[in-house]
Amino acid sequence: MSAQANHTLVVGIGASAGGLEAVSELIRHLDTRIPACFVVLQHLSPNHKSMMPEILSRETDLPVIGLQRATKPRQGTIYVVPANSNAIFKDGRIELTPAVPEVSPKPSINKFFTTLAKEMHDLAIGVVLSGTGSDGTAGLRAIQAEGGVAIVQKPDTAKYPGMPQSAIDAGCADMVLSPKDIAKHMPSIVTMHTDSNESIAENQMKQIVAMLSDSMSMDFSGYKSGTMQRRIRRRVVSSGAGRVGDYIKLLSERPDEISALASEILISVTAFFRDKDAFESFNQALLQHLQEHPEKNDLRVWVAGCATGEEAYSVAMLIAEATAGHDSPLQVQVFATDLDEEALQLARRGVYSIGALAEVPNYMIDKYFKQTSQHLEVSKKIRDMVVFARHNLVTDPPFMRVDFVTCRNVLIYFEPKLQRKVLQRFHFALAPHGMLFLGRSESITQAEELFYVVNRRDRLYGKSEQAAASVINAKVSRKAPEQTVEDIPTKDNFALLHQLLLDIRSAMVVCRRDGSVIRSMGDVARFFNEKKIGASEPSDIGAGVTNAIIKPFKDELISLMNQLDWNGSRVFGTVQVIKGEYWQLLLMPVREKSDLHLAVVILPAFLPSAKAQAEALLSSDNDHDSVLRDELNATREQLQTMLEEMATSNEEMQSLNEETQASNEELQATNEELEAANEELQATNEELISLNQELNVKTAELVALNDEYEHVYDALEFPLLVLDAQGKLLRFNAQAQRLLNLRGHSIGRDFATLKLPNYLRNDSTALFEKVFTEADTQSVMVRDGENVIQVTVTPGLNNAGDVYAVLVTLIDVSDITRAQEQLRQSQQQLSQIMSNTTIILAMKDLSGTYSYVNPRFIEAFQRDEEAVLAQTDFDVFAHDFASSVWEHDLRAVRTRQPQICEHSYSDSEGNTRIYRMVHQALTDDKGKAYALINEAEDITQRKKAEQQLQIAARVYEQAGEAIVVMDENALIQTVNSAFEKLTGRDEEQAKDTCFWSLLRLGRESEGPNNLRNTLDAEGFWQGEVTIGRGNNDTLSVWLTVNRIQAADSEKSAFVAVFADISNLKESQRKAEYLATHDSLTGLPNRTLFHDRLEHAIEIGKRNQSEVGLLFIDLDNFKTLNDTLGHDAGDDLLIQAAERLKTVARETDTVARLGGDEFTVVIADSTMAAAERIARQTLDVMSQPFIIGRRKHFMSASIGIAFFPTDGLDTTTLVKAADTAMYRAKENGRNRYEVYKEELQSQLMRHASMENALREALQKEQLYLEFQPKFSVKNPDEIIGAEALLRWKDPKLGQVSPADFIAVAEQSNLIVDVDFYVATALIRQLARWQKDGVDYPVMALNVSPKSFQHESYVDLILRLLDQYQVKSLMIQLELTERTLVSQRNSELGNIERLRNAGIQLSIDDFGTGYSSMSYLKRLPLAELKIDKSFVDGLGLENNDEAISRAILAMAKALDIRTVAEGVETKQQLQWLQQEGCDYAQGYYLARPLSTEDFIIRLQQGRKNEH
After folding, report:
1. Among this protein's residues, is 135 annotated catalytic?
2. How many CB atoms lie within 10 A of CB 1259?
3. How far apart are CA 236 and CA 195, in angstroms?
4. Which of 43, 193, 498, 919 is the catalytic position?
5. Which residue among 122, 130, 134, 135 is the active-site one?
6. Which of 846, 845, 844, 787 is nearest to 857 (CA)?
7. 1241 is catalytic
8. Phi and psi for 1261 in degrees, rounded to 5?
9. 16, 238, 263, 506: which one is catalytic?
10. 1078 carries an active-site annotation
11. Residue 1478's pLDDT is what?
12. Structure confidence by residue, pLDDT tens digits, 430-453
């Protein structure tokens, strides 16, 4: 389906997972009247159910639908693509495709936008909102390329600006707006596409084209009108001008808007390797061209309409790949041209976003691009191949001798005439064997004679070397046969030919090969549609000949055109009868100037061909002279025509001669100018001779000066070189000649070619470049073995400040360098020692001013180095600390001896640190002190450790855990008092005893040797052990043993700590039991049950045996629990558990899952064994239970499933057994059922119908029908009706009430159904009441569950009051089970209905819990005799007896009777005889729709009258 045929516009909206806020804001502000649909694609996790439809539906009144299958879009609807699928737009439908399991966002925005652009073309609209990554960029580029609208959220309004910014960087954004502004502009954007009546007037269009031409020098007059209209309207919307007239005024006021409009019309959109298949064909053609022309040393390619350069660089990369293996270098030149200067600027930069390179293979990215922050830049190699230039395809001259021309998606915007003109230029530009590469939507139709087809699908064409011969059949696969081509008459003969055709009432049309008409002559109106082919006079026409010719010739014309295409010579059609005359169609190729066209001639059928006519004339001797005369006259006329043409040619030659004379005069004037210039050159030459003489004098002086300089150079003791600006050697001194081995022939040689030492060759190049760049002296130190050479390069500058020469000096500074290195190493060693020592070190002068502090000092005292240096202790520290330090400094100066003292220091956090400080005085050779040295050590931790050691000794003795210290052989050295309490051994008894001998580790693998190995390997062991006590008893303890290795000794020791854990073990055992067993019955709980079932299945898999599972549920347990209380229920569950233990084998597992559900796992089971246990279970459960000294009876329902038949894992097996148990309950309880596959199918159908019923209630798909009640005495009289609920599901079709009412009752939906029926009925009664319909009493059925709700009666009363319906017109039909119940809620509802005047009726009387008491005490109006009794009336005595009893009882109680299901006349007669009041059934009337019921009611009223 084309975009034109699909009238529903589709707007794609893309965002990532963080774009929900932006999507919601856009949807919230959308106008609900927009004639378009919206497709939302948001990146979400495919592992979780999406709530997007529900979330978005809260923001808008538009319907929001989650896509599940292929959907034809509807106007005014929002579709949400699920996260586990991708969406495409194909054939006018939104289709879902499976998402490939790859690390990429899903659903793909690019994929949907691309298919949307391909399908909708310029009607496509794409929106990219907040998100990370670059998804959507390629899709927007595809939309732009097709002329659609690409909209992007403003990055500063996006929570995650990655996706919008990527699209903006790639130049893919037509509009950049906030989500709210996007919604605001959306009506205008959509209207621009949908309102075909809104066109731009021709004069306005011409005015805009003229303004573009004047301001931008761009002529758009040849562009297609539709394209121009859409582009201008888009700018009208974007600029907010409103109307075209206002926009023209805006163009005259704002030059920047003219530029924006020009860019809009140019559509500067392209992409790398756009259409991969087409580029693959182009690559094959390129390779074939290079292979067929190996002699070529250059390759020229013209990329016309290059836009931002992606296509040009794509072509360049393919050329680079194709020429990579060539032996000889190939000069490649790619000319990339476009009118858009801004696009060309972007192309020249060659910088693109990562998203723009999505279609470029990774190996090409690595090879031809380099990363720059968030972008990729084209390599220099590729950029050097491409030349970008502004060029007009129509007015500027084309490039010459190009091998390939690529012009993709440019011609589609041109009118046919302009297309032909451009194609002619391309033909002229191409070299022989050159090729043309067009876009998918373009062709060479307007110039077929100029090219032949190489690959029609991928639009590759070759230059035709015989262009004129290919107009009829330009195909590569076969050559067209030689054609008999007629010349079109000259212009002077058009009138004659036209008159001749009029005389014979014929017509001729000359057209191009594509059918577009050039001229028409003769009686055209007779055979062609004048509206399509123009006036009868010869004229230039633009309509197609196949559309204009009358119907009898239309199909034949197409066939003859194909035949002419194949044969190449003229062809005749069959004879056609037109208004009683016979006519024949003739097609022949004709030539006009250098072009070949097609002539369509309609001739009378009786005229023979020219050849046959000549033969007929010559066959008659009598007419021979007449023939000769006719030929002579024709020859005269032809000669006259040739004379006239020759005269015309002479006039043209005369004009050309005049032009030649004018050119000759211009050349004569140019010659005179050259002679004057020659005289000026002669005078200049004389002046140069004079200057040469002066130069000779200066040269002699310069030679003398040069000799002096050479003596100076040679006297220097280091090498010296002089180079010119090109790096050639000008001179060198004697020292350079000796050390560098230079000779006279080295003068003039390039510096790089001189045989110089490696150090000079390697390091000098960069130095030279820096000198030429900065024009300043540069120096570097280099090594030549053990020697160090200082290379200095000094520039020589001219008056302009440019470098014209450089002076290179090489000075050996090895001795100086070695001395400096030794000094540096000494200083470095000293600095490292002072900086890395752990000692706090400081130096002061004799006044106490700090001159040096090491990093440890700064760290310890938390002072900056700048804050300490040049300060005294009193400036830096507190007074007490400073005075203590200064006092000992002075003592060291006086005594000349080191002073050691401990100082207390309080840091900035208030912590006290203790420093042991050594104070020394440095003295000179004379013993005079000149400096002070302070060395300090932080001994705070040592002091604390001493205190802790004393505390630890007390803790060790008083600890509650036993502590044992052993030597390396595990002999006890010391123990604490807790050891004696736990083991009964004092320290005397324990000393020198092996500690391992006291332990009992259980398993042999956990013995002392293993414990010792662990200690040796890891140095640590802990675990639970038993330890022997003095009275031969053992004690469970938790033991921790650590190995202790002394720092100054290889010997190790062990410390063991243990504590009594007997009470802890007992608590742990109880906790483990409670975690896996039911606290009430002592049976395994759900966790242990699953573990044992899984274990049984594993054994079954290994032994290939079956595992049986019984799922047991106690019947009516809830009733007992509710009536007798939970204590009685718990007592019954305990007794039931004990009984189940008696029937199970010892190898079986009996478990309680919760409530009244039990299971039995039967390992290595058979069907017989499982059924035997099930029967025994039913027997024991049917025995009376003694609860509170009373007997209570209980039964059970059992489901049986087997592994592997019914399930291969625990979940499946439990589900199967549970399903079978529910089937047992449905079949009457107190029984067992074996799982069958169809049980699961029934449950699935039940669940499916339940879900469909819920949806039907929400969407109000249920409706009412009405079955009338008739008077038995007068069967035509309608006295009432019963409202019946019906359901027609879109998928399930018409669903029987017996099916869906049963599902509703089982799933508790029956309450919702009853509420729905009550609401629908009362609303219908209100409508009848408003329309004046006189309706009878209407009855509706109520389930027991609904009647228990007080809210149901509230609903009835509220609806009656709301719609002003009389309560006497409503009747509720209740079942006997509802009335038998004695619950307060039901009794209260009955009383409220009685007070409201609403009548009650008993439905299906006699089939339930019939009780005479409620007939006596309840306000009943009717008894309805069940259909099961009515069926036997007149046939079965029992049914008649029961029916008579019901009628007699009702009559005695003054209650009306209604017979249900009356289907025969015999039944009706019996009821009349026995005195029944009313009847209903198919014999009287089937359930009727609302309309049919009104008709039947009105008919009944007429019959009564």
Report:
1. yes
2. 9
3. 14
4. 43
5. 135
6. 844
7. no
8. -85, -10
9. 16
10. no
11. 93
12. 998 899 999 888 888 888 888 988
